[in-house]
UniProtKB/TrEMBL annotation:
Alphabetical UniProt keywords: DNA-binding, Membrane, Repressor, Transcription, Transcription regulation, Transmembrane, Transmembrane helix
Domain of life: Bacteria
Keyword Oxidoreductase listed: no
Transmembrane annotation, as ranges: 39-57
Organism of this sequence: Georgenia halophila
Domain named HTH merR-type: residues: 1-40, 119-188
Protein name: TioE family transcriptional regulator
SUPFAM superfamilies recorded: Putative DNA-binding domain (SSF46955)
């Protein structure tokens, strides 16, 4: 199979195919008597597996994984896959944590802090919430609150967004949520900017996780096919003649 034939099959350039070969992502191509590259069904399976893995994981992980598979280090490759699955599982767990916690807040959750003089000191915020300053410091150490500091005195300053987050944290805490869960929820809320935006973000996040999960299923099938092709290649003593597809010679 000519480089151009393999490249066209996947919408790539012939240089990309040579780069993947040089990087160890696919095996070295056999050379004809005139030094032209001759790719096989094994190379085609390897390229399909790599492109599927990029969609399922990321480019860097996929490159390391494919180099390990192509070099025969299967256990190393499987560890990369396990890490990718574990990351997806953690993301799903975080999503469930945030979604479940938001039900505790309900539609009456404060969007902004109103009717108060800002910024608050730690003592003022504690009185506003009916808590002790020590409790707020504990929340800060847990990552629930991230107040600014006065550049001159170093004292904590709680602005409107900080007060709103403290009120949300207080609601979640009364609902029995642990501090690490509350820290996760408020971290996502800070990134989103508002509760409405967070709900939109969670919906988009859920769709992304579904796409990643399906991509991992597809990549598993392509990788399995590549492993089978490598096994067949090894069983014939690396003699690729049986799997070569006759084609006119072109530039290497």
């Amino acid at each position: 199979m000519r480089p151009v034939d393999l490249a066209r099959r996947h919408g790539l350039s012939t240089q990309a195919i040579r780069n993947y070969e040089a990087a160890g992502i696919i095996p070295p191509a056999r050379r004809s008597r005139t030094s032209y590259r001759d790719y096989t069904a094994t190379h085609a399976a390897g390229l399909a597996a790599y492109l599927a893995l990029v969609l399922a994981f990321d480019s860097s992980t996929s490159r390391r994984l494919m180099r390990a598979v192509t070099a025969g280090r299967l256990d190393e490759a499987l560890e990369h896959i396990d890490d990718g699955h574990a990351l997806l599982a953690r993301d799903r767990s975080t999503l469930r944590t945030v979604e479940t916690a938001l039900t505790d807040l309900g539609p009456g959750a404060p969007e902004t802090a109103v009717g108060i003089r800002l910024p608050y000191s730690v003592g003022e915020l504690a009185r506003h919430l009916g808590l002790s300053p020590a409790t707020l410091r504990t929340w800060e150490r847990a990552g629930v609150l991230v107040p600014r500091r006065d550049p001159r005195t170093g004292h904590r300053q709680y602005l409107a967004s900080d007060v709103r987050e403290a009120e949300l944290a207080h609601l979640l805490r009364r609902g029995g949520r642990p501090l690490d869960t509350i820290a996760t929820v408020l971290g996502e809320l800070r990134d989103a900017g508002s509760l409405d935006a967070l709900l939109t973000t969670l919906d988009r996040w859920r769709r992304d996780l579904t796409s990643r999960g399906r991509a991992q299923l597809h990549a598993a099938g392509e990788l399995s096919a590549y492993l089978d092709a490598l096994d067949r290649r090894a069983s014939t003593g690396s003699n690729a003649r049986r799997e070569r597809t006759p084609a006119p010679k072109a530039g290497a």
